[in-house]
Amino acid sequence: DVLNLKMNMRPDQKIINHKPYIVVFTNFSISNRSEYYSIDFKQQEIKIIEKSNIINYDSEFIKFNNTVCDQNKLLADYKKMIFFLSKKFSKINIIIRPHPSESLKFWEDNFCDFHNVFITQYGSSSDWIVESECIIHSGSTTGIESYYLGKPTILYNSIKNYKVMPLTKSVSLECNSLDQLEEYLNDIILN
Fold it and tell me: What are the distances in angstroms from CA 125 to CA 5, 147, 172?
């Protein structure tokens, strides 16, 4: 949030006052990089590997490439997940709140015509969490924040062996499929 220069202090009241909402916090900084962050990840990884005196350079580079591929797959799965939720839970707003280093364009291009999907980087994550029914995250520290604010916290991770911070995983209900996610959300929203 500190990195986001466009940040307002409070969430958009038009969204909050309209109907209940779920916040989807994303962190796909490699796959959906904002044009404001012009880091070449391949070059950055090469520098890190060279500085750390790693003997098996090829092995480390393969790990990095696997991470990139997994994040690309997870980003595509999040797109499918949000589409699914917007249809299954049409009376609830879905707020997509990309990480400040992510591009909004990907989300806007895919969800601009949905009546119950909103994309924003405005406001603090805490304010969005407090007013939400629950949050869904991709391994973000907002999962920790949500847990400590007493909100139901779901880690949606459809990629087997996708690495997330252990703490974000430990404070979240982990879902690996859309059916499981729908079941969790029905329990949260209907109770």
Answer: 14, 13, 17
Q: How far apart are CA 155 and CA 163, in angstroms?
A: 12
Tell how far CA 55 is from the center of its chain.
Answer: 34
**Rounded to a whole number, what is the distance in angstroms from the first to the last CA of the chain?**
31
Cβ atoms 166, 147 nearer than 8 A: no
Q: Are 132 and 21 in contact (CB under 8 A)?
A: yes
Contacts of 187 (CB under 8 A, 6+ apart): none
* Cα(10)–Cα(81) distance, integer angstroms: 26
Q: What does pLDDT average to in each consecutive run of 10 residues of the chain (191 residues)?
A: 42 63 92 64 61 62 76 95 97 94 92 94 92 95 96 95 90 96 94 74
* Residue recorded with tokens 């990195």: 3
